[in-house]
Amino acid sequence: MLGLRLYMFQRISALLMAPFVIGHLAVMIYAIQGGLSAAEILGRTQGSVLWFLFYGTFVVAVSIHGAIGLRSIAFEWGGLKGAALDGFMWLVGLGLIALGARAVWAVTFAQGAGA
Amino acid sequence: MKAAKDITSRAHPLWIAYIVHRLSGLALAIFLPLHFWVLAMAMTDPARLDGFLHLTEASVVKLAEFGLVFLLAVHMFGGLRLMAMEWLPWSAPQKTLAAGATAVSFCIAVLFFIRAI
User: Fold this and answer.
1) How many CB pairs under 8 A join A and B?
2) pTM of the predicted protein model
3) Contact yes or no for B19/B105 (Cβ under 8 A)
4) CATH for B2-116, among 1.20.1300.10, 1.10.10.60, 3.30.1050.10, 3.40.50.300?
5) Are the beta carbons of A103 and B37 separated by less than 8 Å?
């Protein structure tokens, strides 16, 4: 069961992500040719404000979307309710944002990236 | 009777669309922390990141990637279909859209796979 606010967050984050997912699929199909290497990935992303914004926005949207999605599954299939259900959602959302932000920073502006 | 009704409803293409959407979302959410953790190695341990990326040369990993690309594509197209059903005054072509979402996702995953091998 989702309240209107969570329902809207779920749908808006989904709509926001659609172009990012298409971009991500395109980059993957392009980048996989000839194999993958850290140097190749960092050569594309390092120091790039554009990739930082692309992946940064993507991470925020996917964290919101994933947290609300897993909340629905935990409620419907896991029987989680009340504060435990909301606590679970926040844990997933904040965990994904923290890990995702760290990854985006690592491939764009981190000191020593690509060293 | 209830069992028979359940079987009938679960044989419906849109029940399959629902379960594909749910399971693909669940799998992607489980994969994401691993994905982020490996990428962060660019900062913490670049040599180890390269080690992980070399794993992508293995056929079994390419197959797993094919699966992940398909899950991502089918979750997106399935989600767009769901939002079209909720927000747009469309109803008749839902089953066709569900099938189309799966077909397009499969094409994208195959395209990825043939570039990968």
Assistant:
1) 100
2) 0.86
3) no
4) 1.20.1300.10
5) yes
